[in-house]
Amino acid sequence: MDLRKPPQLIFNTDGHWIINYQDRWEPEDITKMMPTLAAAGVDALSVLVGIDDDLSWRGSPHGQLWGDNIEDWNPDPLPTDIHGHPLRDVQPLHIHGRPVKEIDGRMPANAHECLYGLFAKVIQDGHDLMQIYIEGARKHDMAIYASFRMNDAHACDEARGWYGRSRQKMESPDLLLGSPVPVGVHGADWAFSWRWNYAEAEVRERFLGLFDETLTRYDFDGLELDFSRAPPFFRPGEIIENIPTLTQLIRDAREIVKHHSVSKDRELRLIVRVPVGIGENLEAGIDTETWIREGLTDILVLGSPGYCVHEIDIDKAVSFAERSGTLVFTGFDGATYTVSPQEGYERSPSSVLRATALNGYREGAAGVHLFNYDYPSHRAGPADSDDFNVYDDYHLQTVQALKEPASLERGNRCYYLPSPAGVGRADHRAQVPRKLALMGRGAGPEHAMRLIVHDDIDAGKAEGRIEKTELRLRVEDVEGSLDRIHLEVNGRSLPFTPSWTITNSQGQQWFVFDDPPLRQGLNTVLLLLDGIKTPDPWPSVQQCEILVLT
Known about the structure:
- By secondary structure, the chain is of the alpha/beta class.
- Strands 1-2-7-10-11-12-13-14 form an eight-stranded parallel β-barrel, surrounded by five helices. Strands 15, 16, 18, 21, 22 and 24 form a six-stranded antiparallel β-sheet that branches. A four-stranded antiparallel β-sheet has the order 17-23-19-20, with no helix packed on it.
- It folds into two domains: 9-417, TIM Barrel; 434-549, Jelly Rolls (Sandwich).
- It is globular.
- A hairpin with a 2-residue loop joins strand 19 (485-489) and strand 20 (492-494).
- 24% of the residues lie in helices and 21% in strands.
């Protein structure tokens, strides 16, 4: 790959590839996924410098080797998997489908001690994990960026995440967001957030020091700063006044990258990943518009903190970049919120990723940033294997298509409204679930659900590229109100008589309406109740999907 050219498909991995080191204790096993990804069209990798925002090396004045301060790895005691789920009857201990081996003659107590043991053993064996990644990327002709999660939330979990609390955080609680934290923010159950408070100069200086140290120690092609992982960055009531503070941090990071570009006599890039809503970002202290207009970042990725969402402000971001030249990428996690069964899958079907990527390209995105796709649980499933080194052909075809808008429009796509139990704090506000409003009480067109489909549906059908379209609705408590339900698609009334229904293994049922009157661009789906009388039970729409089937 010509490193002077920007990438089009960036693959982010969080560092758990180190689990492969236990295969033979050979460095090349850590990077054994790289040739598969390169063959699938991945141009660049972004790799975490360690775990969360701590490091994979020792001796830094700004951070520690992740886990170096933990003395008791099993205080409860209860072995858990990597997500903290108890492993009462599962032997041997495993991580992501990989059985855990003894490390230097000792079996780890849990998955987290295993990860720490592997980080430490790589160093003990005379290797450097970041250098292993860099050499692997060069061998397979990919660019590689050092990724920092700017406020990872894992350490907020008292049950699992305390393993990630560095000595710095334990000894300097005044540098943290602390207590109280807003409802819905990770850590709220304990009324305390272990994330950094960026209003503190010492916190900002720590990260700037890490950026400089990383580019001094290693021959990375640049840095990736991940602000999607995750707001908040400031204490409640202190966000607005600190918007310039965060912008200045980005200016300073930009200068560090420029300095190292000059010293290495080649162009290094600064990639910044932020959540998908530009207005919501500003509410979190992230001035996305200024960062783009001033050209503070080479690549700006709009991507949800988790899962895949469709409503991404790509078009706005692209308009801000007209003079600065900043490249705007659409970004998403491999996992989706619940959707109806599709293509033989019930979990995270690729149809959602295809729709999101195509929408992004149609709005001017220069590329795709794929997050967490190395986890089988974040790919269409169930997969043939829980081992994250094993990709089905279906998954590889998904990755390959993400670089090719023409391939995306030839594949099945699902445009959906995420229906989460909780939504990222800087994502657009969720449209569903919602109860059906009453027309007799004033409900009307402004109550419609809104979905963007950047594809010419009529032309696609005429060309034979699109076979049919479907509207799928998952509704609850409608049995006693079926004669009162009013359905409109793009202003055209349709009888609430589904063509058929589809049910998943959890017993959730979707009403399917064949070939609704869809259009290119904004589509509105209005679901209301006739009359003025309060229903009991009150019907609700839980999920709404548009499928384009090719």
